[in-house]
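Support request from a user on the community tier.

User writes: "When I paste my structure tokens into the form, the page sometimes reloads and wipes my input. The last time it worked, I copied everything first. Here is what I submitted, just in case something in the input itself triggers the reload:"
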């Protein structure tokens, strides 16, 4: 087995408007989670996946994935937790078999290209202990004071040099023992991504190019982008079939 991927999919999607858990929101004809797993399992390096599903929907998610991916799909479903970090830890605890490379990928990033998945695994196999896909920052970034959720009354403190900044995506890749040690050592809610926990241990995290198509569906506008990308891919498949 080359690599396994843990897929946190238990979030409520509050910034998307709540209601159905975000990973179960339909994009086109299937839920976001199905798109994400199809994208991940299309990579030859991925041998298994463990999904952290909404705790009250584990059986429903198992049935959904069996229907959409096939009963023999190498996918295990467990109950996620109250935070992304806990969901990842539960998925990691459920990972069986001798798999030295473990990826963590948000179900909310349904369209990650195979090339990014392969690059992450190859970087770990080449000796890195941890790796993240990332994109350069295209907006000017400023630090503000009086941070308010709606941005009201904030003031700029300084402009941050964006040349040394990267917008980090998933799948993030790790040596399995490194990821396990990071989760063991990190307080709950300590960081917003798994690489952050590894950094806190002093482990070097490598960077590989990400992809605009690996964007995270977070706010309502992202759903429009996701549908547009789906339509473009359908048209490309139709063109190839002609
Ligand atoms: N308790 C949680 C929270 C998040 N996630 C997952 O972590 C990924 C990234 O989290 P995010 O985009 O923040 O999803 P939500 O937490 O659902 O979004 P929001 O913060 O808007 O509620 C998502 O695939 C989400 O399903 C999870 O498995 N368990
Ligand atoms: C893990 C992540 O997708 C990397 O950019 C991001 O940190 C998740 O943040 P969220 O607020 O949990 O969506």
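"...and here is what came back when it finally went through:"
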């Amino acid at each position: 087995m080359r690599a396994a991927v843990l897929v946190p999919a238990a979030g409520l999607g509050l910034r998307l408007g709540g209601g159905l858990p975000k990973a179960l929101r339909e994009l086109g004809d299937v839920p976001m989670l199905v798109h994400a797993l199809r994208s991940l399992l299309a990579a030859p390096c991925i041998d298994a996946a463990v999904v952290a599903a909404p705790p009250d929907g584990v059986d429903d998610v198992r049935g959904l994935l069996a229907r959409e991916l096939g009963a023999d799909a190498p996918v295990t479903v467990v109950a996620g937790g109250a935070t992304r970090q806990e969901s990842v830890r539960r998925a990691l605890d459920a990972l069986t078999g001798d798999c030295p490379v473990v990826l963590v990928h948000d179900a909310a990033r349904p369209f990650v290209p195979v090339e990014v998945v392969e690059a992450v695994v190859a970087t770990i196999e080449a000796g890195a202990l941890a790796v993240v896909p990332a994109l350069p920052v295209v907006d000017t970034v400023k630090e503000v004071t009086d941070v308010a959720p709606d941005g009201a009354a904030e003031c700029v403190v300084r402009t941050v040099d964006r040349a040394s900044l990267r917008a980090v995506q998933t799948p993030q890749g790790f040596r399995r023992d490194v990821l396990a040690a990071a989760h063991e050592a990190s307080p709950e809610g300590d960081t917003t991504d798994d690489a952050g926990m590894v950094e806190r241990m002093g482990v070097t995290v490598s960077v590989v190019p990400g992809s605009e198509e690996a964007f995270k569906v977070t706010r309502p506008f992202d759903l429009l982008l996701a549908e547009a990308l789906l339509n473009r891919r359908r048209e490309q498949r139709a063109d190839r079939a002609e």
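Agent notes: The reload is a front-end session timeout and is unrelated to the input. The chain has one domain: 3-134+167-241. The radius of gyration is 18 Å. Escalated to web team.
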